[in-house]
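User: Predict the complex.
Assistant: Input components as received:
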Amino acid sequence: MTVKELTEALSLEVLTMPEPDREITGGYAGDLLSWVMGRARSGDAWVTIMTNMNVVAVASLADTACVVIAEAAEIDAGIVERAESQGINLLRSADPIFAACSRIAAACGL
Amino acid sequence: MTEGIRFHYDVDGDNFTSAGEASVNVKKKLRQMGFDPDVIRRVSIAMYEGEINMVIHADGGEADVEVLSDKIIITLADKGPGIPDIEQAMQEGFSTAPDNIRSLGFGAGMGLPNMKRYTDSLEIESEVGVGTTVRMTVNV
Ligand SMILES: Nc1ncnc2c1ncn2[C@@H]1O[C@H](COP(=O)(O)OP(=O)(O)OP(=O)(O)O)[C@@H](O)[C@H]1O
Ligand SMILES: [Mg+2]
């Protein structure tokens, strides 16, 4: 499933979606950035409540398909612009992490 | 053998919001040069971990990347406090990161283990009170 299809299937809030056709091939949840760097795979939907600027760099380097901010967490200023310029899909869900992950897994058939 | 292509970056020690810029830039350059996505990912993640370590633990430093025909060499050098026990620092979960850094999502003690995992060689030279130099190689 593509990122755009996921946002439609789950009515996720789109903060920015510069790469709507990116395919989601897996998922990873976590807030400790070095764990994400070590364990997330390229093409994962990354679910987190971490919302500072470093999230954009980690998503870019780990090459995740999208970032899903759970719990409708407030994001720091400037992040959306940074994500957009780096081609990072940044989405937001009102669900807590566990619910967000299980819904994403069901929608993507993971 | 032909001379490699070199990139040099000064890594600012007190700017967390721009931390990682050198690694993101290297990723972009390697992509333009047509490298395999897996190689790009390994190089840029390992470099990012080292770059962030210089920002968090050593008040910044310098990053050099050399792209050769058969490998990519990343050198990160700082004049920070040094690492008293490298073996201990390499262990998963060991971290001296302060609380304000942890609240940003760093300090899991996984950076150096990731650097080892994603590269073909990792050498650390460090002297307490003098600084740390990390040299990593990823074979192409
Ligand atoms: N350039 C450096 N200068 C001084 N000390 C360092 C340097 N790099 C690493 N260290 C020391 O080694 C420890 C382990 O580093 P490592 O990158 O594995 O974890 P971390 O940076 O604490 O957390 P994480 O990388 O998971 O966010 C650090 O907490 C720090 O004490
Ligand atoms: Mg680290």
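Chain B has one domain: 5-139.
Let me know if you want any component modeled separately.
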